[in-house]
Amino acid sequence: MDNKAFIIIIGATALVLVGYLVFGLRVGTPPASTTQLRKTGVISMPQEQVDYKVGFAIFTHDTFRVFTASMYHNLSKDVYIAADNPNIVRVKKAGVTWDDFFKTLPLTLTKDCLTTGTKETFCTNGKGILRFYLNGKEDTNALDKQIVNGDSLLISFGTESDEQIQKQLQQIPRTN
C-alpha cells in the first residue's frame, strides 16, 4: 500500500472517531453544562417542580415544639416552612427527602439525636428514645424517605406510651 492510501485511511478513521465522539455520544444523553460536568462528574436531570404541603410535628418529653421564630421560615426555594403555619412543609421540588428538609433548618437531626435551634439536645439514651412516625407508622428510616403529597411526620423524643404517641400523631396539621 502506498503512502497516499495509508494517509487517506488514517484520515477517514480519524473523521469517523471524531464524528462518533461529537455526535454519537449525544444521542439519548441530556444536555449538561461543562461546569456541571466538571464539578460533579455526573449529568443530573433537573427535578420536577411540584407544589404541595405536608404536615410534621416534633415533640420532646411530650412537649409540642413550635417553629414560629423567623429563623426557621422560608430558608429554601425547594422545601420550607412559612410563618403562617410553621408545622406545614411546603414542597416545591420532587425528590426532596425529609433529611433534605431538616438540613435547611437551623437544627441538627439524625436517627439518634435532635439538637434544636436553641441548642437543646435530645439523643436516644437512658432519658428517652428519638422515634420517627411516617404516616402514622414507626419508621426508623423516615429521614431517608422522599416527601410525597399527603405525608405526615412525627418526631418524638421521650418515653411516651403508645397512647401518648397516638395523641401526638393527632396534633400533626392535616393538609388534605
Summarize the entry for a quick read.
This protein is of the alpha+beta class and 176 residues long. The chain has 4 helices and 10 strands.
The H/E string reads HHEEEEHEEEEEEH
Q: Could you name the ranges where pLDDT drops below 50 across 5 or more consecutive residues?
A: 25-45
Under the CATH scheme, the architecture of the largest domain is Beta Complex
Helix content: 10-25%
Give the strand tally.
10
**First-to-last CA distance:** 79 Å
Given the helix and strand composition, which structural class is it? alpha+beta
Radius of gyration: 26 Å
Q: Number of helical runs?
A: 4
Using the coordinates shown, work out and report the CATH topology of the largest domain: Ferric Hydroxamate Uptake Protein, Chain A, domain 1
What general outline do the C-alpha atoms trace?
A: elongated
What fraction strand? 25-35%
What's the mean pLDDT score?
84
Major β-sheet, in short?
A: 7 strands, mixed
CATH hierarchy, class of the largest domain: Mainly Beta
Tally the structural domains: 2
Structure, described:
There is one protein chain. The protein has helices spanning 3-23, 34-40, 98-103, 162-170; strands at 49-60, 63-65, 79-80, 88-93, 108-109, 113-115, 121-123, 129-134, 137-138, 152-158. With 176 residues, the protein is of the alpha+beta class. The protein has two domains: 3-40; 49-170, Ferric Hydroxamate Uptake Protein, Chain A, domain 1 (Beta Complex), CATH 2.170.130. The strands form two sheets. Strands 1, 2, 3, 4, 8, 9 and 10 form a seven-stranded mixed β-sheet that branches. The protein has a three-stranded antiparallel β-sheet with strand order 5-6-7. The longest helix is centred in the first third of the chain and has 21 residues, at 3-23. It is elongated, with a radius of gyration of 26 Å. The chain starts with a helix and ends in a 6-residue tail after the last helix.
